[in-house]
Every structure is written in C-alpha cells, then in structure tokens.
Amino acid sequence: MNRSIKLLAALLVVQLLIASWIFWPQQQTLQNDAQTAVVTVEPESIQRLIISDLANSTVIQRRDGDWVLPEYHYLPAAEDKLSALLQQLPSLQQGWPVAQTEAAALRFEVATTNYQRKLEWVSGDEVVATLYLGTSPGFRKVHARRADSNDIYAITFNAFDAPAQQGQWFDQTLLQLNDIERVEGLDYALERSATGWQSNTGREANVDAVDELINGLENLIASGVVSQETATILHETTAPPTLVAQTGGERYEIRLFQIDETYYIKRSDIDIYFNLSALDFDRLNTANADNLFAKTVPDDQSL
User: Fold this and answer.
1) For residue 5, what pLDDT is reported?
2) Pfam families attached here (predicted)?
3) Chain centroid to CA 57: how far?
C-alpha cells in the first residue's frame, strides 16, 4: 500500500514538472505582454500629433521647438494637454487584454470604422503609432486598441484629455502679460516703482483697485476664437485702445468689445479676436482714474 502511494506521489511530481515546463514560457510571455507600454514612442522624435473623432480632426505640429496648431491660425498649443499624449500615455502599461474580437472592438468603440478617438504619433512622414480610444469601463478608464493589434485593453486615461476639436487645443493663456512696467488707460497712467504702483502725476494709487487691474492682465483667459463674421464686425469698430500695457520694452494695445452679453478682446501683436469672460472684461474695462487713485481732499476742506 505504501509502495503504491509512493509511486502515485512520484507520478504526480513528474506531471507537475511537465506542466511547469509546458506552461512556464507561456506564463512568462503573458507577464511580459502585461508589462508592455500602451504605445511605444520617443517623445523627442515626434513632429506631429493627429487627434480625430468621427467628425473632427486636430493636427498639432512641432515648429522651431514649439507646438502649434497649423490649421488653426498657427496658435500655440496647450502644452499641459500635450504632456498627456507625449508623456502620460506612452508611460502607461497595457495590462491584460479584456477582449480580442472584431465584435468587441465595435462594441467598445475602438474599431477602425467606429471609435471615439484616434491618436496618431508622427515622426517625419511616418506614423509610428496609432491608438484607438473608445468607451469607458469605469472612472478615468478607457478601452484602447493599437492599430497593429486586435487586443483591447482598459487603461487609466480619460478620453476627454484628448479632444478632437481644434478650439480646445490652443493655449488659452497666450494673452497673459507678466512683469508689467506701465499701464495706460483713457484717463490714467500707472508706473511700477521700487515701492509699488504710482500715478505718472504723483497721485497715490488705490492698492486694491490697481491689484485688480494688474491681476486681470496677468491672468487673462482667451476662451475661444471668434468666427470670421464676428471678427469682421469687430474689425470695423473704430475705437481707441481700452488700455496699453508695457513689459520688457514691448508695448501692447488691448481693445475690448461687447455685443449684447458677449465679450471680446484683441491684442495688437496677435491678429485674432478672442472671446472673453464677463469677469475678465469687467476687471479691465472698469479701470479708470476715479477708482485707481486714492481720493484727495482739497486743502480748504481739510480739518
């Protein structure tokens, strides 16, 4: 009896060794596959990014070291968004595939003919990687499939971080001015000194009001590019600059416009009209000598 048990035990050990020999390479392959990057690109070698959905497409191009939108007035691209496609996505591990069939690709919207986003990384004239993004299986998760594979993965990414509309890719901070040295309005002029802001006539500045104006210039957000029809209307509007700001030896004329409850801005060095929020419009448009400078009391009225 003991001999039979020993033989069975020995046979079991042999079977386990055979099974390990057969399945170990496959397991290693699966583990290696799970540790593979979602896409393999060298960010420094990428010259163009193309983001598409079934209705829109945006091209982002590297030019002289900067990223611009060649089909959208050559405006600078928002580099914080770019980092999601050049740094974040290539660093993700793909994990285990959740599906592999064509039917699943259609269902998860990562098929060649049915997708929510198509991302293409281009080096020179060669598309070095293409990734389809589709439905979301959970919070900050999205189904993804490389164009060269049938494997579908659930990766930690948000498709909203890769919009296909051009207007969502330009740098909305491009109108912001820093290190401002002087600001002129229709009835005032402010100059920065070692002790703070002062009037060019020596009047004492109202610190809170001046800070509001300067913060408005430093934190401007261009919320969109106006239509050609609206740009034509604004271009035909003749008015002096709302204010002029000087920084780094450069002079910037800023014009503000209002049509009904919509607000616009134009800066002299950029030949484009932008939409502006009511908050930003008010911070710049309401500045005047009455609120920027402290009230003075005539000598004969003093106590």
Assistant:
1) 59
2) DUF4340 (PF14238)
3) 16
